[in-house]
């Protein structure tokens, strides 16, 4: 009797699996468009097991087809960013059971972390998108940070710290977005000052919080033709390294983009009456709200709901 030969996990076998992969559930004509990108991306992720390669190929195939269908270009740094993968989880996987969704998204995140350099993915073991949000800073702490920003050593550092504060607390910018915003990205939309954030294929226009409009406009004016936040640092921890270089009173908590964004988001949620919605619905957690996003009206720049994000009159 011939012994059963197990599938090997050597590099040649894994490479052959990637090279010969053909998904059964994807139309061949569509597959021809995304095949090279899917195979190359999985190869770049460096799977060590045959099963890892197979699972990544399947998950990435479905994702690539969805991305093309909704209008994304297959640029790894853009389409494999956390916000795009989260959009796919919410709107592109509804036919899958929740357990299958979790499995496929976990595989996607693992590949995305391995093949991107600028996308703000947490390190393995640092938690995923369900990690709790950081606590917001108080108004007094923010004013102390602003005073410290104005007192930085040299105009370059003053510009950098004030711009970081204005873009995060004023418009909710993410770490990876801070270094791409220029003066031309700050504009008025129907009389409301707003900032364009994110790559072109996934751009969002965010109204600036009323209390931060003047500060952001001054920061934009001081940047000239370059980015509002300039830095010679590079890599995944670019923003964290820049914030760590700023000087501020020892009694203040550590300055992080996560807490600055939470401060912005807390203000937005308060102005949108989220606490009242929770009370009326008799719930204490909003984690399940993402399941209802596909059934909501599409967001529209300039709408009354969009203007409400600015909080008060600009």
Describe this entry's structure for a reader.
With 314 residues, this protein is mainly alpha-helical. The chain folds into two domains: 105 residues, no CATH class; 170 residues, hpI Integrase, Chain A (Orthogonal Bundle). Helices cover 50% and strands 4% of the residues. Strands 1-2-3 form a three-stranded antiparallel β-sheet, with helices on one face. A hairpin with a 2-residue loop joins strand 1 and strand 2. Helix 2 crosses helix 6. The longest helix is centred in the N-terminal third of the chain and has 21 residues. The termini are far apart. The N terminus is likely disordered.
Topology:
Blueprint: H1 11-20, H2 28-45, H3 50-70, H4 76-79, H5 82-91, H6 98-115, H7 139-150, H8 155-171, E1 186-189, E2 192-197, E3 204-207, H9 213-222, H10 238-245, H11 257-271, H12 274-281, H13 304-308
Antiparallel strand pairs: 1-2, 2-3
Helix pairs in contact: 1-3, 2-3, 2-6, 3-6, 5-6, 7-8, 8-9, 8-11
The end-to-end distance, rounded to whole angstroms, is 81 Å
Radius of gyration: 22 Å
**Low-confidence stretches at least 5 residues in length (pLDDT < 50)?**
1-6
Number of helices, where a helix is a run of at least 4 consecutive DSSP H or I residues: 13
Structural class: mainly alpha
Cα shape: globular
- Helical fraction equals 40-55%
Q: Which CATH architecture of the largest domain is right?
A: Orthogonal Bundle
Give the CATH level 1 class of the largest domain. Mainly Alpha
Strand segment count: 3
Global mean pLDDT: 86
Estimated share of beta-strand residues:
under 5%
Total domains, how many?
2
Neighbour order of strands in the largest sheet: 1-2-3
- How do the helices and strands follow one another from N- to C-terminus? HHHHHHHHEEEHHHHH
The main pleated sheet reads as:
3 strands, antiparallel
CATH topology of the largest domain, by name, is hpI Integrase, Chain A
